[in-house]
Design goal:
Layout lengths: L5 H6 L1 H17 L6 H15 L2 E2 L18 E4 L2 E3 L13 E10 L2 E10 L5 H19 L7 H14 L10 E3 L6 E5 L16 E4 L2 E3 L5 E3 L6 E3 L5 E3 L2 E6 L2 E4 L5
Antiparallel strand pairs: 1-4, 2-4, 3-11, 4-5, 6-7, 6-8, 8-13, 9-12, 10-11, 13-14
The chain binds 2-amino-4-trifluoromethylsulfanyl-butyric acid and cobalt (II) ion.
């Protein structure tokens, strides 16, 4: 897998900043009564205004029933990942995960966040906070000289301690000129095992937890991944560069 030079890591910063700014903006505007397509349109306008390039739109891996129809993944309540930006109208209390990646000046960054629309509930707040804490722990473990399993174990431990469902079929990944590169970054694992973490490795770390069990189902569209038991799910993701000085979060929001 390709390690980035310090200059290349620096060149990825504008992509990271752009992704962060779009997610912050979406979080600010998302409210009851808006559709998921409204959010997608807003992000698309920001992409055009920045001269960026969507890496979602038209993306068509073998599992998709159709090419990806938007620039965002918008996953509501029991949808955990890859929810399509549809005409669904957001309701008070909805748990919304937004996942966004795009290419800026030839480099990609990828990030996701989850929040509740309007009224919050203790159940969703705890799930979201635990997912964010797992992301922070995974980032803290992304140290040069460590192993991939350090990240995976840090994430998995926090999810399990919260009593949440975790499914390792989907996880993080390398990021570079394209969205999905080697290596895979699992959300479950054992510390001190797996790939050595060397400076120049840039990865998306992305815990996603389910309030219920470990099972998931996929909609007929081939994209939308939902909890098997209908419980809510949360997802948090940052693109992180492992440098000699430690992890640098390229998609940090202020
Ligand atoms: N950004 C997602 C991830 O974290 C993948 C989105 S797939 C797409 O890996 F098809 F929706 F683009
Ligand atoms: Co990702």
């Amino acid at each position: 897998m390709a390690l980035k030079t310090p200059a290349e890591v620096n060149a990825m910063r504008p992509a990271g900043k752009f992704i962060a700014s779009v997610l912050s903006s979406l979080r600010d505007i998302a409210r009851e009564g808006m559709t998921l397509k409204d959010l997608d349109r807003h992000a698309h306008q920001m992409i055009d205004a920045a001269g960026a390039h969507s890496v979602y739109l038209g993306y068509h891996p073998s599992f998709g029933a159709m090419p990806y129809p938007g620039v965002l993944c918008t996953s509501v309540n029991d949808a955990a990942l890859h929810g399509l930006p549809s005409d669904y109208v957001l309701r008070d209390g909805d748990v919304l995960s937004i996942d966004f990646a795009a290419q800026v000046q030839g480099w990609v960054a990828d990030s996701a966040l989850t929040f509740q629309i309007g009224t919050t509930t203790p159940e969703a707040t705890k799930l979201i906070e635990t997912t964010e804490r797992a992301l922070a722990a995974g980032i803290a473990a992304a140290k040069p000289g460590g192993r991939m399993g350090d990240i995976s174990e840090a994430i998995g431990k926090i999810g399990r301690a919260g009593g949440y469902g975790i499914n390792a079929d989907f996880g993080g990944h390398g990021v570079g000129r394209t969205m999905h590169e080697d290596p895979h970054v699992p959300n479950l694992g054992r510390a001190r095992t797996g790939l050595k973490l060397n400076p120049g490795l840039v990865i998306a770390i992305e815990p996603w937890f389910m309030a219920g069990g470990d099972g998931y189902v996929i909609d007929p569209d081939g994209w939308t991944i939902r909890t098997a038991d209908g419980s809510i799910a949360a997802h948090a993701e940052h693109t992180v560069a492992i440098t000699r000085d430690g992890p640098v979060v390229l998609t940090a929001r202020d």
